[in-house]
Amino acid sequence: MSLLTVSGLEVRLAGKIRVRDLSFAVGEGEFFGLIGPNGAGKSTLVRAIAQLLPYRGQIRLDDQDLSRLPAQARARQLAYLSQGDAVQWPISVQDLVALGRHPYRGSWWRGGGGARADDLAAIDDALRATDIEHLRQRKATELSGGERARARLARVLAVQAPLILADEPVAALDPRHQIQVMTLLREHCRRGGSLILVLHDLTLASRFCDRLLMLQCGEPVALGTPGEVLTGENLRRVYGIRAVTGTHDLQDYVLPWDCEPGESDSSP
Amino acid sequence: MRLNLVLLLLLLGLSVISLRFGEAPLSLSEVVGGLLGTGSETHQLIVQQIRLPRVLLAWLIGLSLGASGAALQGLLRNPLAEPGLLGISSSAGLGAVLALYFGVTAFSLWALPAVAMLFALLATLLLYALTQAGANNLTLILAGVALSSLAGALTSLALNLAPNPADVQDIVLWLLGSISDRSFEEVRLCLPFVLAGLALLLLCAPALDVLALGEAEASSLGIDLARLRGLIIAGSALSVGATVAVSGAIGFVGLVVPHLLRPFVAYRPGRLLLSSALGGAVLVLAADIALRLIGTPRELMLGVVTALVGAPFFLGLVLRSRRDML
User: Fold this and answer.
1) Can you give the CATH number for the domain in which B29 is found?
2) Percentage of chain B exceeding pLDDT 70
3) Which helix (H) or strand (E) holds B253?
4) Cβ pair B220:A99 closer than 8 A
5) Pairing between β-strand A241-248 and β-strand A251-259 as defined by DSSP bridges
6) What is the pLDDT of residues B11-65, one digit of tens each?
7) Domain range spanning residue B90?
8) How many domains does chain B fold into?
9) Do A139 and B267 touch (CB under 8 A)?
10) What's the gap between Cα B37 and its chain centre?
11) Domain assignment present for A225
């Protein structure tokens, strides 16, 4: 059963159409990857789903029109992790992760200011899942790249939303942390959560994602399992590259290898 | 919470000290007698008519500057934001000077704070528009400097063209920022706006915490950014505009206080708001006591004292943030 359905989506930014005529659905427990060259509209699409951009068409979550859902209800259904590092003040990791509980905060006049038991449990779970319990009291601005990525992910997990949208969460990480974070996200899906992930690394995409949507210039090129999407033809057409494919432990993988001759600069 | 209690006690203690000292020092019992109306008539006059308005104005100015500084820093995600540095205070000052110059105050007593608040609002909106256009910290500060200079130049122009030299001296002294020789009339004039502004700013506390994550993630957590910006812009303009209208521009309080208190509130921008407001009041009151105790031949202006302390502090902060960026 699908959790999220996008139909006839069109997004304009500064007068230019960035995503056009896009329809797809993401199922419960699905690890859904968005791939495509720079400027393909991946981040724009994720931000439109997160209701951060105006759009035409319909985006439904759990059969409710997302654009009509009140902000707080929406924030409990969908957690968004932006690209890049954005924590401004040296707040503690614990306080950072606790911000993920904001959508559950009651109004202050109803005495909802303090953390409740389920908030504390959600924070502890998120810290444990990302393996940063020992960093609780550290300042968020003083963490290493890998630690910071996990702390921001813990903040997202603490929302306990059925759908997570993550924009390149592994881009700045070393291979060990990349695999760690991807495994962690897959765990979220194993427990029934859905995930839409923007990523550039085709090898990780082929290994971890259940399905992929390949975009080019805001239009869908291919949608399906990694095997269906990451074909030699699609990679040549969209990225202008050739890739090596193989199988390890019964899993197919794709390894970008070299540029297609004569098409070295075909991406817009 | 404990920090706020400490600040409140400090504020009350300093208030008593401020009520005691002046040209005629009073004992504690004389102050209490003057306040409650049980003491001699002279003491009642000194305490109630001369010193109490001064203490209350120090409270209101400090609360306004401390809260606006913390709120603007949180909203703009920039530790160098402050009403004075960003030109909000000097714009309010320009508004007040223009109101005096064109005699708008003749129509209504409220015209002065109204025009000052309007100018503060315009300055805040302009700065906000700049940050939306993707300006970085440096651009923002430079825009603030430019805005202050422009407001200063226009103020000078008004003074330059003023027909009466005595008026000019009055306005110049007033612009330096002072709360001496003020009466309850000034307190009444700014009190409602300061309280309204503070209420708007304090409403923003939880949202400012979440904004530490950046605007996109904060918005995804259900924060209404347009409402938050509106509250902080209106709150700062109301409270700072109203206090500038009665006291002139007092700089750097909104910069120094949030910076000093941030470590005590675990760096959380929301929790900083109330503490910074109280801390601002403590600082303004302490500075006002200090300038009376120093005993210079002519009493120092409050704005001069805060600038003397605040400007080197700002320089240090700039150097440090530069080092952090490198």
Assistant:
1) 1.10.3470.10
2) 96
3) helix B253-261
4) no
5) antiparallel
6) 999 999 999 987 788 888 888 888 888 888 888 888 888 899 999 999 999 999 9
7) 2-325
8) 1
9) yes
10) 31
11) no
CB A201 within 8 A of CB A115: no
CA end-to-end span of chain B, whole Å?
36
Spatial CB neighbours of B168, under 8 Å, sequence gap ≥ 6: B159, B162
Pairwise pLDDT comparison (A262 vs B8), residue with the higher score: B8
Residue A173's nearest CA partner among A184, A161, A187 is: A184
Residues of A in contact with B77 (CB under 8 A): 88
**Pairwise CA distance, residues A195 & A88, whole Å:** 26
Run of H or E residues at B94 = helix B88-101
Let me know: does B303 contact B276? Beta carbons within 8 Å. no
Domain residues for A136? 87-159
Q: Contact at 8 Å (CB) between B274 and B225?
A: no
Using DSSP's 3-state secondary structure scheme, residue B48 falls into: helix
Contact B212 A100 (CB under 8 A): no
Q: Which of A99, A119, A196 to mutate to test the interface with B (most CBs of B within 10 A)?
A: A99
Q: For the segment A32-89, what is each residue's pLDDT rounded down to a tens digit?
A: 999 999 989 999 999 999 999 999 999 999 989 999 999 999 999 999 999 876 788 9
Distances (CA, A) of B260 to A99, B9, B79, B266: 24, 18, 11, 12
Tell me which chain B residue has its CA closest to the CA of residue A109. B203
Distance CA A115, CA A127 (A): 16
pLDDT tens column, A122-143: 999 999 999 899 999 999 989 9
Two structure tokens written together for B223:
């924060």
| Structural domains in chain A (count) | 1
Q: Which residues contact B257 (CB under 8 A, 6 or more apart)?
A: B65, B66, B69, B70, B276, B279, B280, B283
